[in-house]
Amino acid sequence: MLLLWQVGAAEYRSPYLPGPGDIYSAFVELVRHGDILGNTLWANIGASVYRLLIGFGLGVVFGVPLGLLMGLYKSVYRNIRAVVEPFRFIPPIAWIPLAIILFTGLTRYAFLIFLGAFFPVFTAALIGVARVEPIHRKVTLVYGASKVYVLTHVVLPTVLPDILGGMRVGLGTAWMTIVAAELTGGSAIGLGRMMVNYSELLRIPEVVVAMVLIGLIGFLFNEILLLLEKYLFRWRWQVTL
Amino acid sequence: MAATLTKPAAEAPDPRPVKVDVDVSHRYGTLPVHDGLKFTVRENEFLCLCGPSGCGKTTLLDILAGLLEPTGGRVLVHGEPVNPKRHNISFVFQEPSTLPWLSVRDNVAVGLRIKKRSADDVRSTVDDILGVVNLRGYENYYPHQISGGMKQRVAIARAFATDADVILMDEPFVSLDQPTRERMQAEVLSIWARKKGTVIFVTHNLEEAVFLGDRAIILSAKPARILADVRILLPRPRNTLSPEFTRLRAQFANLLNAAVPAGTGG
Ligand SMILES: Nc1ncnc2c1ncn2[C@@H]1O[C@H](COP(=O)(O)OP(=O)(O)OP(=O)(O)O)[C@@H](O)[C@H]1O
Ligand SMILES: [Mg+2]
Fold it and tell me: What is the ipTM of this complex?
């Protein structure tokens, strides 16, 4: 396939349609000498991943407890859902103008990424609570278990698979938001920023390198979460997989 | 002759102290399930509860365990309103009740851990009881890896692990085959003989009731009333093939048939 691409690109003879060779040399160049602003490729990756982890982490830290709480106190949620739920449907990118006004620097990125991560995690926890079986509560209550015990030993184990599923969805949205977030300026570093800089120069090979890296890093994080799921939920999977 | 095998509980005062004192009237919405159901259970008594399907046996056990507040009346354990935090109760539920995210060992240990017993104590008690229910070697299996009957044995082991003084069992053996069922009946009797405790055992199976109980209460269709409350005086171990046993079972069957109004099919 790579070969076909190389041949196709050569035949097309457009300076803007790079072949795999061009992309590889752009990649080597970026690794060796950094980008046009002098930031190394690793610094760009590091900056983006750092922002992702902060924003995503915040999404999980707020999404899980709020989702569990609203799931446990459904009557409360029923009253406020008409206010909360519409936010779910506002794409993170739509928040950019407000984010520019309200926040600067890291907070701005973290805020936009948080928006991508929060709702999938929150919704997963919220819906997961409804799946807790009354009999599982009874098993612990009959021995005199406290509310907290039921929450940590019955509700949480039941909901955890949903939460991790929500985290994978949230991670996807959050990471996709990074390019948009870094477009808002503020910092000259980051994979998204780097991509935009090169696209303004019409240097497509570097743009493609950034795209591929964004894809691969997202994939890597997803795989890590999948491994975590496999480890945590071995009680659900068959022994052989 | 029958008089030597059973006695109406009212005519045979039991010297043991009262453990559970029941007087409940419960309704689900407008549906009356129990209507002034009143009885007491003695310390270390093995009481079997029989009654047609849907007459409110499971509901009654939930109320006895303090898991469900009756709409009328009360349950006293040792003279105080029942409270799972204060009283040492355990329950073998009618439906499958193993926690799927815990191994067999951790499932059996649930009650012990909630009651904050030491790690050593948990380990030795669980090992012990797993031997009794024949699940040694399956400690690290998860519920999805064992059969339905094995899961029920896990639930039984869990109920007997905590030395509860009130043990509620809701048709615990229905999912077991006949030989396993017979072995488990014998095991329950021997654990009970060793550890004591007041057992309230719900069953449809009259043979089981006559085999296990010190006493049997037969309930009517809902709203449940007590149709018969008899002490079973057959000496243990009981032989299910003896003429006395067979006669008693037939006597119970007549009572239970009377409990199911013709044409309603329970
Ligand atoms: N949560 C509930 N809400 C409303 N009605 C209920 C509820 N639980 C049970 N019932 C009703 O109460 C009655 C008694 O139910 P229960 O489960 O106590 O019967 P049971 O004697 O245990 O029957 P079985 O022998 O079939 O297990 C039934 O008519 C049932 O439909
Ligand atoms: Mg029942």
Answer: 0.91
